[in-house]
Each structure stands twice: as structure tokens, then as C-alpha cells.
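for the writeup, i need someone to sanity check this before i put it in the appendix. the sequnce is what the collaborator sent (i think, or maybe the updated version? ugh). structure was predicted straight from it, no edits. if anything looks off just tell me and ill rerun, i have time this weekend
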Amino acid sequence: MLRFFAAIATVGMAAMAADVSTPVVTFNKDVLPVLQKNCQTCHRPGEIGPMALLTYEGTRPWAKSIKAAVLSKKMPPWFADPKYGHFSNDRSLSQADVNTLVAWVDAGAPEGDAKDRPAPVQWTEGWNIPKPDLVVEMPTEVAVPAKGTVEYTYMIVPTGFTEDRWVQEMEVRPGNRAVLHHGNVYIRRPGSSWLRKYPVGVAFVPDEQKFSSSAGAPAIDENVAGYTPGKQTVVLKPEQAKLIPAGSDIVFQMHYTANGTAGSDRSKIGFVFAKQPPEKRVARIFAANTSFAIPAGAEDYRVEASTVLQNDTDLVSLKPHMHLRGKWMEFSAVYPTGEKEILLRVPHYDFNWQLEFILDRPKLLPKGTRLEVSAGFDNSPNNKFNPDPSKEVRWGDQSWEEMMIGYFEIGFNPKMDVTAMTGAGRKQLE
């Protein structure tokens, strides 16, 4: 009998020891740091997230939804295959972070001690970048109808720059996310004839716009920034910057979508200037295929594109772009030696979260490197986003049409023009 009670006591003491060694996960000590690092860029007032996750009071009602979202990997949105590449803006959760959030919910979502709470992140109100040195806003609102197709809409705004300016950080802020699907901002140089017959400061649809070629934008370095759903802000490294030449105009190219309710938009772009001229100029090139025809009902139709580098180049970031039938995309580099390397694989493309994948450190690509992009499209009835699986699909602006573009942000000698980097892609396509 004494042995029995001794055994019971030993088990009880072990259980108490286990309880002591396994502290309760709390919001203030364990959960809030995860939210600050991975979630609050979107989940705060004025951003795309539907609820703010800044405080315990704001987060607690969503505890069960948070558990479901992180277990399914629906949130945070991040689509890069972890076997290829390392990216500085990777906001995917580690398994340890997932375990922390799940344990917190399973424990009843306790708040914990206030002294364990980390200092709040100091966000710049209205921006994901520091307070801009310059904000360029569309001078007039654009009316968006409740129904119908809205063609790509443009607006030109002079910068008034009397000298070249180098930009370190930039962000396009939509005036009305409900009607703006995506927007691009281009730089029109003083000597460019692009869109010269159109008025400044008012919205227009170019009559020469046949398909999405930015109505003939003449040089691939004309794009400086853009907004797409879920895109994180691009912050260049201290030695990098983008060029806005003296006398340039800002050109807004906006893709509005009717949603059943008439609305209006007045978007803007903010710039943070570099403190000194950069070691590397950053600009965008791409590989695109505009001649594909996706058969009706095709479940995984492959489309390919490529471009060849004409000079040594630093690879800065990668961005896939397709529409509602986009299924997967892969970026590769084929080096002059014949060796091939996968740079990025997105196994499950999501049109609603068009992310840019920024390398954790620039990757040197030698002259003669061929940048290859391959993509799969699901035009079958199994694709729940497919507008019409019974129709063949070709290139076009609208979401029910398709695009296939792989974007590459590159860094190079500031004394060189970006057109010297590649012999292809001299027209804007997005």
C-alpha cells in the first residue's frame, strides 16, 4: 500500500513539473511579436487586411480564424517554393510561429502580463514607407461606372524636376481599392513622344491602345512602381536606387474594375529620395509571351518566354504575372556555361495576391545568361475562378483574358542605360 501511494505521489510530482516546464502561451509575450513581424503590414487601419491585429482587444475575436488560416497556410500569403531561393520579404510563418499561434488559441487565447508586451511598431500613417519626400497625386478623380468593361485609364502629371532624382523607396497608394484592381506608374522622359497628344492632369483612354503595351511606352525603364493586390512595398538597399530624369512626367496607368456600385478613385505615389547617387541603378525588365492560345478545357497548358542579358547584371527581385487561369510559374537562369538554376518556383499562383519576391542579396548574372520563364494555365471547369472554360483564351488587358509575364528587377552600372542590359522587352506590357 505504501508503494502504491508513493507511486501516485511520484506521478503527481512529475505532472506538476511538466506543468511548470510548459508555460502558457500568451498574446503579449508570444503572439504579438509574430503579428508585428508577419501580419501588421496588412492588418492595420487603412491597409488591405479586413481587421486590425495591433492589440489584444482587436485580435481576440479572430483567434479561431487565425488558427484556421495559419494551419491551412492561407495566411500570411506567400507562394514561393522554399526549395528555391531566399527572399528578404518572406513573410511565411515558421513552424514554431504556427505552433505558437495554435497553442495560444487552444489555451483560450489569454492576454498575459502587460509588462511582456513589446513596443508597438511605429507605422507612418497612410504609408508603408517612411514619410515621403514627395507625393504625386492624380489631380482629378476618375469616375468608375457600376457595370461594364473599363479600359486601362491614364493620367499624366508633370514632376517639375529640374535635376535628375534618385529614388530609394516608393509606394503607390490606391484611392479606392474597391474599384482599382492594379495600377502602374511610369516615367515619361522629356524627349519621349509617348502620349504627347493627350492632355495633362485629366483621365483618358489612348485610342492607339490595342492591347496592354502601355499604349506604346518606349523604354523598359519607364516603369518605376506599381500597386497590385497584396504587394509589399519595395525598399531598395542603400547602394541601390531608381532614376527619375529631370523634366520627366509621371504617367498613371490604372486598371479599374466595375463591381456593381459606381465609385471614383484618386490614387497617388510617394517617393523617398536617396541621400547620394547609387552604386547600382535598379530598373525592370521582363520575359513575356503574347502569342499563346490556351485551348478550351485545358487543365495545365504550358507557356514559355525568355530574354538574354547583354551585360553583367545583378538580379534584385522576381514577380510573376498572370490572370484568373494562372496556375503556376517558374523562373530560371541558364548560364553561359549551360548550367541551369531555378530562381523561383510558385507552385500555386494566386491572382488575388500578386507578390514580388525580393532576393535576400542581389545575385550576379553574367553576360549571356538566358532568363527563362515557364507557366501553366488552368482553363478547365476545375478552376473555380475560370470565367468560361468553354472558350479559347488569348492575351488581353482584362481579367477574363490572360497574360504571361515574368518580371525581373535588375541592378547595373548607373552610367549605362537599361536598354543595354537586354535586347528584348522594349515595350511595357502589364
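Residues 1-20, 210-216, 424-430 have pLDDT under 50 and may be disordered. Helices lie at 2-21, 27-38, 56-59, 63-71, 95-106.
thx in advance!!
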